[in-house]
């Protein structure tokens, strides 16, 4: 029987996080982003960035979590990264005060497609929410590609909804539309179902 859990990322996870990011983007975004852009992403560069994010986060509220599938062996299968909302979380022309203190931004929430539909995304999101609550955040935001139906469907199924903000990323002279979703961070942990439920 396979088991899954979430833990904080460690420096030695950086290479595997980069591999998961590339594998997931190349499957999930193949119809959204130009193929040559996906093909030319540098895994070693991404690994260095993830190593820095894990070892030298800008603040204690910046977190990288990993999802682990444990069967006969343990596998890193996904990750989530978040931190206090900054200029990257804003829509074009939106004033900085639009996302005041108390707002956390999800920058990544990815599960490698071959490990999908096993609860890893839900566990990553749940563990993140627990940490956001501890850090005093009251609202969370995340950008999603308009064409990324899987991410939008996952987030909306857990209570997130569009907040009306939109932007278009310039990816090698191609404008790729995104929309921002948001959710209130619950003040209390979700209650555990009764035994046998």
Automatic annotation (TrEMBL):
The keyword Acyltransferase applies. GO terms for molecular function: acyltransferase activity. It is an enzyme of class 2 (transferase). Residues 4-182 form the N-acetyltransferase domain. PROSITE patterns: GNAT (PS51186). Pfam families: Acetyltransf_1 (PF00583). It comes from the Bacteria. Its EC number is 2.3.1.-. The keyword Membrane does not apply. Keywords: Acyltransferase, Transferase. This is GNAT family N-acetyltransferase. It comes from Micromonospora sicca. The lineage of its organism: Bacteria, Bacillati, Actinomycetota, Actinomycetes, Micromonosporales.
